[in-house]
Amino acid sequence: MISKIRKWGNSQGLIRSKKLLSDLGLSINDRVNVEIIENRLVISKALDNEISLKDVFAEYNGRHMDREIDWGIAKGREIS
């Protein structure tokens, strides 16, 4: 299936047919994963077990952590 990338506001979009999305079990407002695998764009339905940032902080009580966290060896230019 050949398609065109079109202008969508300040972005670009790839419009897919309702039937194609339905065949994949997707509908409007579904979350999807978009990846590049072996030079191919792969779009798949996001799993329900994925956690949002809101979920991560759901039980946060607002208290400051007063200890330093070791994130491992520096890998970039974050060392000054």
Attribute tags:
alpha+beta, Pemi-like Protein 1, Chain: D, two-stranded antiparallel sheet, 2 helices
Provide a descriptive summary of the structure in words.
By secondary structure, this protein is an alpha+beta fold. The chain contains two helices and four strands. The strands form two sheets. It has a two-stranded antiparallel sheet with strand order 1-2. A two-stranded antiparallel ribbon has the order 3-4. A hairpin with a 2-residue loop joins strand 3 and strand 4.
The number of E-state strands comes to 4
Q: Please, how many helices?
A: 2
Rounded to the nearest angstrom, the radius of gyration is 20 Å
Which strand order do you get reading across the main beta sheet?
1-2
Helix content: 10-25%
Label the structural class.
alpha+beta
Average pLDDT confidence is 83
Look up the CATH topology of the domain at 5-56: Pemi-like Protein 1, Chain: D
Please give the CATH architecture of the domain at 5-56: Ribbon
> Class of the domain at 5-56 in CATH?
Mainly Beta
Largest β-sheet summary: 2 strands, antiparallel
Give the end-to-end Cα distance, rounded to a whole number of Å.
50 Å
Helix-strand blueprint:
Elements: E1 5-8, E2 11-14, H1 18-23, E3 32-37, E4 40-45, H2 53-56
Antiparallel strand pairs: 1-2, 3-4
What is this structure, in a nutshell?
The chain is α+β, with helices and mostly antiparallel strands.
